[in-house]
Amino acid sequence: VRAQGDTYQIVADVSQFEPPDIVVTTSNHHVTIRAEKVAEDGTVCDTFAHQCQLPEDMDPLSVSCTLTEAGTLLITAHRR
């Protein structure tokens, strides 16, 4: 987690996954990123999982995600 001014930012490289394969959830000041690539035959061929804790002064309703064209996932949250 990186702090920039009044914003916290998490950056993850998920370039090997398609947007529908990526799920981001938040709960109790934790952000969880999960991604799973499924082959045409139904087998899982690649996975990604990362969880981190956001600081206590973070506004949980301000969490947002952006996926760049290069496959970088940017998660931001604002301080209260």
Strand content: over 45%
Report low-confidence residues grouped into runs of 5 or more: none
Counting helices, strands and paired strands, the structural category is: mainly beta
What is the CATH architecture descriptor? Sandwich
Enumerate how many helices there are, as a single number.
0
Assign a percent range to the helix content: under 10%
Q: Biggest sheet: strands side by side, in what order?
A: 1-2-7-6
Shape designation: elongated
**Largest β-sheet summary:** 4 strands, antiparallel
* Overall pLDDT confidence: 92
CATH topology: Immunoglobulin-like
Number of domains: 1
Please outline the helices and strands.
Layout (H helix, E strand, L loop, with lengths): L1 E3 L2 E7 L8 E6 L2 E9 L5 E10 L10 E4 L4 E7 L2
Antiparallel strand pairs: 1-2, 2-7, 3-4, 4-5, 6-7
Family: Belongs to the small heat shock protein (HSP20) family.
Pfam families: HSP20
InterPro entries: A-crystallin/Hsp20_dom, HSP20-like_chaperone
Walkthrough of the structure:
The protein has one domain (2-78): Immunoglobulin-like, CATH 2.60.40.790. Helix content is 0%, strand content 57%. The protein has strands spanning 2-4, 7-13, 22-27, 30-38, 44-53, 64-67, 72-78. The strands form two sheets. Strands 1-2-7-6 form a four-stranded antiparallel β-sheet, with no helix packed on it. The protein has a three-stranded antiparallel β-sheet with strand order 3-4-5, with no helix packed on it. It is elongated. The two termini are 16 Å apart. The model has no long low-confidence stretch (mean pLDDT 92). Belongs to the small heat shock protein (HSP20) family. Residues 1-80 form the SHSP domain. It comes from Nycticryphes semicollaris.
